[in-house]
Amino acid sequence: MKTAKLLPVLAAFVLAAGCSGYRPAPAAFHEALYQPYVLDAGDSLRVTVFDQDNLTNTYSVDQAGYIAFPLIGSVPARGKTSKQVEQSIAGMLRQGYLRDPDVTVEIDRYRPVFVMGEVGAPGQYSYVPGMTVQKAVAAAGGFSPRANQNNVDITRDINGKVMTGRVVTSDPLLPGDTVYVRERLF
Prior knowledge:
It holds the Pfam family Poly_export. The protein is of the alpha+beta class and about 190 residues long. It is built from four helices and ten strands.
């Protein structure tokens, strides 16, 4: 008889414990979507120096956050916008290499997004501007039959701080995000 009364309490406790992992996305999580894009390792930049074909090329941001540029060496890129890198390169080239360099920096390839959990083919996928969770899951082979298709957990690096939050599948992604599709309860 006591076991029958204890069973509903125990069931409620187990369900509450299962929900304690829920973390809604913090405000900074969504604010990051509207900030200028900052570069990091894995991004690839197309640098054009007008009338300097030997300097115009595609450069990758290395693990340390720099691009290796001819004549001037390492140029810091991590945490900077493409416009800031453009100004840095032009300023360094002015110091004894070119009189008035005309430099343009554009993002050639963004760092990838990662999709894990209940999807057809978990892995690393190329980011394209405007990518949403749904599009990333589609690239990863779609939801598995056991997947929770309502919301997912995203891990995002915001100003050097790694945050995880739960979002709906129509939310936009940023380069470098990790998407985790959970298994549904029923």
